Amino acid sequence: MVEQIPYINLAFFIPTFPLLGFLITGLFYKRLKHNQAGIIASIMITLSFLFTVILYFILKSSDKQAATVTLFDWISIGNMKIPFAFLIDHLSLTMMMIITGVGTLIHIYSIGYMRGDERVNSFFSQMNLFTFSMLLLVMGANYLILFIGWEGVGLCSYLLIGFWFKNPVYNYAARKAFVMNRIGDLGFILGIILIFFTFKSLSFSEVFSQAAALQIGMPVITLITILLLVGAVGKSAQIPLFTWLPDAMAGPTPVSALIHAATMVTAGIYMIARSGILYNLAPITLQIIIILGLSTAILAAIIGLKQNDIKKVLAYSTVSQLGYMFLALGLGAYSTAVFHVTTHAFFKALLFLGAGSIIHAMGGEQDIRKMGGLRKKMPLTYITFLAATLAISGLPPFSGFFSKDMILNKAFEHNILLYIIALFGALLTCFYMFRLLYLVFYGKQRIATVRPHESPKVMTYPLIILAILSVFGGFLNIPALFNGNSNFLNYLQTAVSVKITEEISHTTEIILIFISLIFLSLVILFAYRIYVKKSTLPEEDGASMSVITRIIYRKFYIDEIYCTIIEKPYALLSGFFYNTIESAILNPIIDGIGNTTYWLGNMTRKLQKGNISFYLFAMVAGILLFIFFILII
Amino acid sequence: MILLIILLIPLITAVFLLFLKDKAWVRSIALAATLLNLLLTLYLIFYSPQTEITFSAVNNMGINFSFGYDGISLIMLLLCNLLFPFIILTGFKQEQKQVPLLNFLILFAQSALIGVFLAKNAFLFYIFWELALIPVYFILLLWGGEGRARITLKFFIYTLSGSLFLLFGIIFLYQLTPGMHSTDFSVFNQLQLPAHTQIYLFWILFIAFAIKMPVFPFHTWQPETYTMASTQGVMILAGVMTKMGIYGALRFLFPVVPLGVQYWQNFVVILCLIGVIYASIIAFRQTNFKKLIAFSSMAHISLMTAAMFVLNYYALQGMLFQVISHGVVIVALFYMVYLTEKKTATLELNGMGGLKLVAPNMAILMLIIMLASIALPLTSGFIGEFLMISGLFQQSIWFAVFGGLAMIFSAVYMLYAYQKVMLGDKNKLMENIKDLQFIDYMILIPLIMIILILGIYPNTILNLPDLDVRSMLNHISQINEIVKGF
User: Which pTM value belongs to this model?
Assistant: First the structure.
């Protein structure tokens, strides 16, 4: 029996609070008055956050780096022993901090944002259920507990995307998200099964300690990592399974902030970072991840250039940033990827909440062509949005700079071409973000009918806190170049495996930073010229668009392509199976057998009509035939 | 003795019901009897250490009147006795004709099914097998919906002709038994038939089970029959009777013709996987809610059959767990279908929509049940499906991939159905509809509790058939080695 860290069992409470919140708000959703559900849900997740902080200090004060908390035997059959257990280590604590910390702010914000919605209680119930599932996902001590959370967040995502269920378009988007995730999940569960048959266990500690002794390039490990990757691609919206995420913006904006930006979509990155030891053994898979990540980053950034819906811009930006995280994973820089997950959680949650504040102020309008000049009307939203924009663009000293810069450096170490493409993507990011900022906040208000106003405090305070985090979050990990000691990465080192690569010299690093700074400034100036000086507006929908613009605006027609090559054939196949094979082939055959029997019965019945002469004839004929046979044989 | 009591309680109650007139009394007594039976079954499972009780009366034909059980029978017995209280309850607030007769038939069917699962003798098994068909035939014929005469006849002839092969097989095996002939399973299991005999005998025995389950392409009676059947009828059919096929295959095929099983194994697995994909894809375009659920049931059963035939530990265990899980889920689903029809007076998906606006609680419960059907973790559906896919994987990764496709396809058609029924804007059909009534909660809440308990703590029943599955697999591999030795 390993000695347990005192009070570590408090970990049990962390997912329990949101589960309780879900049950209370879910079971009594008809009785709770306005705001009550929101307050209960927010209290529950705040408690989770506090307990996470306590747990952090408990683990810090002990001499251990990880602890397992086992609740009960979940599946125990034959050699398969899968306990319901939590793993508390530096990686899971980091993720828990993000989920409960950012989650708390978003919950509080939602009290203001969702006020007046008739199903506000269900909303908070589902948000708490999501938090519970997400915590299971990152706390699970084995792959199957992770999978519970994995599917659980998928379900909550489905529920919350289709939250306004009167609209069939939203319902379709919700279903699309769930099914696309399920495609990934199939890969994931097959990967889990293969892990079990390879290592005879699913618990992280057991699998990784065995894997440490394996050789690089074993086919079975490569297959495992590819199968897991399929799951991650679905959940983290990478090519080819990324099209659900932009559609997921149908959900209320806080949902987009929590689920489709800060937490759920990073689950794939978490899972691969967690399995880093396995991925280090499979260089081929790492190559695939690099290619997928980088192409997703660029493709989504290009699409983001021409979107006019404020949430769609942010959605493609999320896809693109997730691509960067994948790039980091593919380069073996797992903790760097987690670092980008962290800073991204801050600034992307802030961007979405800011967008929510804007949409709220504009009376539900999401088209940036109809906004403009909001800087004066909504100063707090403006300042915080600006901070987030600077952070995502990667300008020093904002948080995004530190994480993105590290990814770019890693890319440079690997291959200069990678670096150039990644930098190009970063410049695209900078451009579409400033385009968004300028169109929304600068110039004149383009629609006179609405009177924008600053949002209530319950919404702006979370914005301010997130803005502080977005600005200073990068200081969690100050690289050696700036006399820091990479606290964040060192903290993760005990939980996340490291792939040792050659480090570039400080001189090169400084040169690279200057290069990107120069380009970023140029891009910002360029955007300023177009959208503020000349106050150009994006083209109206329709024929006036140039061909390239239209292709980009229509997202390279990927949705249409998927519809033609997958959805329609599937429906056709369904019809073919039912109308042709089932109704025209199988059923008639069986009925035919039945009918033949019936017909034969009818025929033989006719033989027995009591006609004596026929009987005699048949008898004689029979005897003759009989003799005939005997004589011949 | 307790076995005999379990077997006879429904039968005796059934006869007694025929002398009653009052509907409420008939239903209550039937419910009490099934509940008592459930309690006795639970007692048997959790407190009775014996695994083998035989009550036999020998006659000179070698046909022993003997009952007994092992872990596999217990699973089936539990399934049967767990579902019947809900099936009886389903009738409680319905307008029905001839209530005493109906409940007589239902309980009679229960007794016959229990007999099938407890018989330790092939001939006895066959008698109960056919006996179970009769009450179900009348339930379908008298309480069924449109086109019942034609469809019921087809169902009856189809399954009956399958059974004839089984009877032939039993007689064939009987005359092969040494010394004083016998039809006991234990004697059959000792027969070591030559390989080529097993290879054709396999199909003679399997046809009956394949039709009952049903396995592609023997399924054509099923969608129509399910759609036409009354709610209680379809619950018996889909919840319990399909499992007769599975149980029969486990009892007959694996011990008696193991070489035949191994010879045909991949063929049957592929056939079943075709069934999984075929039924899942068809389900997506169904416009009738009940038919959609019927095809979904076929997809799930096909996956279970595929898992059964890969002949390994995890697959068999998962399949047996899924027997219970599928039974509970499908009964709950058909109850939801019934509620939907009662509330909207239609089953056509295209006209529906917006039910969630007027019946939010019903929407929540329906979603939970559907999620169990698509195997979301922490519902019972996940445990079974995970173990089955693991077992399929052990045989071949492609089996696992195609079996696993059911995970995606089921999400496609279930969420489609959910959206069509529940989501969307207000609808004329949905005016003046009330949310769930007390009786609905009485049925749905316990079913959902079972789904969740089994999903969160599957160990309650997961290890029941452990020993028997192991010994069956041992038996097969031993025979295999003997044959290889020659």
Answer: 0.93
Number of Cβ atoms within 10 Å of the Cβ of A485:
10
Q: A585 and A481 in one domain? A: no
In whole angstroms, what is the distance from residue A459 CA to residue A446 CA?
25
**Residue-wise burial string across A110-142, b where 16 or more C-beta atoms lie within 10 A, e elsewhere:** bbbbbeeeebbbbbbbbbbbbbbbbbbbbbbbb
A194–B contact, CB cutoff 8 A? yes
Total domains in chain A come to 2
DSSP percent split of chain A into helix, strand, coil, nearest 5: 75, 5, 20
Domain membership flag for residue A334: yes
Q: Are strands A66-77 and A80-89 parallel, antiparallel or unpaired?
A: antiparallel
Chain B residues with CB-CB distance to A594 below 8 A: 154, 157
If we measure between CA atoms, which residue out of A199, A217, A190, A183 comes closest to residue A285? A217
Write the pLDDT tens digit of every residue in A415-453.
899 999 999 999 999 999 999 999 999 888 887 777 888
Local confidence band at A627 (pLDDT 50, 70, 90 cut-offs): confident
The answer to whether the CB of A399 falls within 8 A of the CB of A469 is: yes
CA atoms within 13 A on the CB side of B369: 27
- Cβ–Cβ gap B371/A168 under 8 Å: no
Query: Could you tell me if A569 lies within 8 Å of chain B, comparing CB atoms?
Result: no
Beta bridge partner(s), residue B348: B288
Does A570 sit within 8 Å of B400, measured CB to CB?
no
Residue with tokens 């969740």: B452
Distance CA A102, CA B475 (A): 58
Secondary structure (3-state) at A238: coil
**Residue B101 to residues B30, B209, B456, Cα–Cα distance (Å):** 12, 29, 40
Which residues of chain B does A27 touch, with a Cβ-Cβ cutoff of 8 Å? none
Same domain, A360 and A454: yes
Contact between chains at A574 and B459 (C-beta distance less than 8 A): no
Residue A156: which of A71, A263, A83, A46 has the closest Cα? Answer: A263
Q: Are A373 and A442 in contact (CB under 8 A)?
A: yes
Measured between its terminal Cα atoms, the distance across chain B in Å is 44
Domain carrying residue A621: 558-632
How far apart, in whole angstroms, are the C-alpha atoms of residue A40 and residue A169? 31
From A549, A568, A593, the end of a domain falls on A549
Look at B282 and A577 and tell me if their CB atoms are within 8 Å. Answer: yes
Whether the pLDDT of residue A254 is over 90: the answer is yes
Spatial CA neighbour of B445 closest among B334, B382, B365: B365
What is the distance between the alpha carbons of residues B448 and A559, in angstroms, rounded to a whole number?
A: 37
| Model pLDDT for residues B423-465, shown as the tens digit of each residue | 988 877 777 888 999 999 999 999 999 999 999 999 988 888 8
- Which tens digit of pLDDT belongs to each residue from B455-480? 999 998 888 888 888 988 888 888 77
When pLDDT is cut at 50, 70 and 90, the band that residue A238 belongs to is very high
Three-state DSSP string of A539-563: CCCCCCCCHHHHHHHCHHHHHHHHH
A258 within 8 A of A130, measured Cβ to Cβ: yes
Scanning the structure block, which residue is given the tokens 């044959």? B483
* Cβ atoms of B384 and B326 closer than 8 Å: yes
Q: How far apart are CA A404 and CA A336, in angstroms?
A: 9
CB contact under 8 A, A80 and B314: yes
Tell whether A163 is covered by a domain: no
Are A365 and A454 part of one and the same domain? Answer: yes
CA distance A343 to A405: 12
A569: in domain: yes
Whether residue A240 is preceded by a cis peptide bond, meaning omega within 30 degrees of 0, is yes
Report the run of H or E that residue A231 belongs to, with start and end: helix A219-235
Chain B residues lying within 8 Å of A144, measured CB to CB: 377, 386
DSSP A263: S
CB distance B239 to B327 below 8 Å: yes
